Amino acid sequence: MSASIYDIPVRKITGADASLAEYKGKVLLVVNVASKCGLTPQYEGLEKIYKQYKDKGLVVAGFPANDFKGQEPGTNQEIQAFCTANFGVEFPMYDKITVVGPEKNPLYKALIAAHPARTNVNEVTWAEKLKGYGIEPNPEPEVLWNFEKFLVNRKGEVVQRFAPDTTPDAPALVAAIEAELAKS
């Protein structure tokens, strides 16, 4: 990856300028999220894993995106209120961005370039499930759908990428997080 993900400007969901540099030395789980998706209940699991591991150095970073069938139509304020009221989200949330196509946010360009292939932990891949719903999935390396997860080590390197239907408590994801947290 040419630029460090720490150097890419982002905005917090409140509108404040930010960067992921504030999490240098921590393990990051970067997730594109949506409020009106069949996978939206993953917010609960993301918050649970954040609370379980934050004292050991894990940060979950949620990036709302409206790229998949209009499943994140709200404003930043509406998204934040929804996440707090319905799932008690306390992990950091960021400005709504684009994660696919020509307007793709630079952070997602960097994440995808660093780890172009995703890990599928379920027997039927999410791409196959999308086809079953009559939806043509994005070709790799593009983000497939809401709730795709990028695991970033303490040095800011993307070490693993998980398919959208990988739940936050999936053994493979938990094991990958724990392995990164164990490294200094």
Write the layout of secondary structure elements.
Layout: E1 9-11, E2 17-19, E3 27-33, H1 42-53, E4 58-64, H2 76-87, H3 106-114, H4 126-132, E5 149-152, E6 158-162, H5 171-182
Parallel strand pairs: 3-4
Antiparallel strand pairs: 1-2, 3-5, 5-6
3D structure, described in words:
With 184 residues, the protein is α+β, with helices and mostly antiparallel strands. The protein has helices spanning 42-53, 76-87, 106-114, 126-132, 171-182, and strands at 9-11, 17-19, 27-33, 58-64, 149-152, 158-162. The protein has one domain (5-182): Glutaredoxin (3-Layer(aba) Sandwich), CATH 3.40.30.10. The protein is globular. The model has no long low-confidence stretch (mean pLDDT 95).
> Describe the biggest sheet?
4 strands, mixed
- Compressed to H and E, one letter per element, the order equals EEEHEHHHEEH
Strand order of the largest sheet: 4-3-5-6
Number of discrete domains: 1
CATH architecture: 3-Layer(aba) Sandwich
Short summary:
The chain has helices at residues 42-53, 76-87, 106-114, 126-132, 171-182; strands at residues 9-11, 17-19, 27-33, 58-64, 149-152, 158-162.
For this entry, give a set of tags.
single chain, 184 residues, alpha+beta, Glutaredoxin, two-stranded antiparallel sheet, 5 helices, 6 strands
